[in-house]
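Help! Submission page says 'invalid entity' but I think these are all valid:
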Amino acid sequence: MYKPGFTAAALLLAVGAPIDAQAQSTSELDAIRKQIDELKNNYENTIRALEQRLKDAETAAAQADAKATQAQEQAKAASDTAAADAAPAQAAASAPTSNAPASFLSTFNPGISLILQGSYRHYSEDPAERGVTGYIPTGEFDLGERGFSLDESEITVSANVDHLFYAQATFALEDGGIEVEEAFAQTPALGHGLTLKFGRFFSGIGYENQLHPHARDFLDSALPQNVLLGGNFAMDALQTSWIAPLPVLVELGGELGMPVEFPFEDTDSNKNGITGGTVFARVGGDIGLSHSYRVGGWYMRAENRIEDASILDLDERFETGTSTLSDGHTKMWGLNFVYKWAPDGNPQYRNFKFAGEWMQRQLDGDLTTDLGGAADTGSFKATQSGWYLHGVYQFLPQWRLGVRYDQLDEGSYDLASNIDGLVEPADFTPRRWAAMLDWNPSEYSRIRLQYTQDKTQDRVTDDQIFLQYIFSLGAHGAHKF
Amino acid sequence: MKRFIALLSGLLMLAAAVPALAKVNVFACESEWAALATEIGGNRVEVFSATTGLQDVHRIQARPSLIARARSAELLICSGADLEAGWLPLILQQAGNTRIRPGQPGHLEAADFARMLEVPTIVDRSMGDVHPRGNPHLHWDPNNIQAVGTVLAERLAQIDPAGGETYRSRQADFSARWSQAVSQWQQKAASLRGTNVIEHHRALTYLFAWLGMPVVGSLEPKPGVEPTSSHLTSLVQRQQATPAKLIVRTVVNNPKAAQWLSQQTKVPVVEVPYSVGSTPASKDLFAMYEDAIGRLLAAVNS
């Protein structure tokens, strides 16, 4: 069982000697002999250890076969390495044998990860009656349900397709059905800092936008992200990004294609060609050993492809009434930063993260208002913005404390005279603040307690308490910076 | 116009001159491999170490600076065996650099060429942070350093053929010095053989296996899981049956657990470098080994 290693050492001695005989000085010869002897001693120790392991394996009747094979493999590996190590001593440069695992059928299986999430939610106000004053959120301003609930489960499958492509898909499973959050292919083989990505993916704009819900620092996304972008803003598109060959990160990128469910949930994409695009830039680096940062800016433009949708809730102000926006564009731009501190670059015991984002949305088009009588159409332009700041401090290895403040501004409107007065910005600033404490027994589990005071609706203060769990199973990849 | 042409031709000359002066960009995940690359590459290589000896290499964030450095690297050298699983894949995915992708000559994982210890037969996350391919802290076996050095010289020669001779001769020189140092260390550390130790994390398994020092316990109940009071209490009790003579930790571990156990059991704590740069003395691979053995000997003899 252990003989190969021993024989290898003996062989080296035998083979090594004639070659060494060519060496001019005898002292050199002695030195080499000595080295080989040491090598032999060395591996005798190893072999002894392996013998012991083998014995252990044999006594464990049930696992005897498996372990013996492993010990054999190790003995072989040991002798391989012995040969490799001896090579320099002989001044014969032969490349050591690689002991990279042989390819088994299972290695072709894609990496699969499953994220399980659930929560207990307490709202002092009825979530079904809630809204954000002055805003019709993109998508839905979904607060979730009161009481115990299972939140979306996420399945991610990823693998190299072949030598040219890598692909990844994330599906969100909810009671209502399955949603394809992301499904894209990427080209790692371009080189020169270039990456090409296509399919459906979370757009590269902003900071919070690229984080899947389980990777956020709070249970819910911040107000501007939630209300202006509609949660994670995804595109069915082509993305290119380029990283400059510099010691600091300078990344430039852009996307062309079709925004998914944007700017409205029932956006109609019945059109050939491109309906939206983005450009983004990021700069990042380190300051000393303990500090690192990244700042970014972006711009996005999307066509308001919508057939018939109410964008402003006139019901609240008038008995009946609808308003529809046709044609026009949605333009958005934003700035973001993230700063992280970890003493000596070691985030394990203590670390701090500070992040913030500002973004502005400009909706324009023709607004048709109908208050039950004759419809009236006029030009419409609304400019709305929001920002957030949040800090998360890990004060003990498994514990993090976080605080967030987020708000939206009251917005400004530029309207044609015939509809002026029907739509007015509310004299109100929707705002929230939140505090959270989470416990992370390992990288794969998180239990979080969060309190939010929500003042996003005029004359309403909603006290929210959440208890949430996030579990990650399987081949879960690393999280982005 | 003339000035423009002069400027342009000047730039072109500069651009032509750059490749001749350019060094091979090496991205080392850990500082021990950065030190090895410097030993073998000399002034033909420009080495960037992604981590320092003061960092826990399991838990590194995929920082923007690392992506930027990986972008221009021609050779990547890492421990492998999933030690960097929490950050390296993300960096490789974002860097847009074909040369250092797995399977390329510019992608070198030490674990592929090392003798691995503690290869598990069953892997489950309930066992803590276990690595299916074995304990990845393989740089504490001097034979592994030799094996990886040989491969590294070949890879460098492949990437920069003009320097092939330099790399091979530097490697041969390093190898001879290393073998000599190893035999000296073995003589020096002979008295350590059979000394029972308790480790914090299983980061020095290879060192103890090489020096013949049985590891009778770990402060971590499971690899990568912080010490708990119940586990530490069980270590105190175990001290009766299998007494340890030393508690060994590296600078990246929190000292509190080791101190507590030391107070309870009167067993001294030794802080040993984890990598190059972990201690003021460990300036290169030789000094790192020298320092570790020196500290162990000092603790045993005191």
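Support: the input was valid. A stray whitespace character was the problem, and the output above is from the cleaned input. Residues 71 and 96 of chain B are 6 Å apart (CA to CA).
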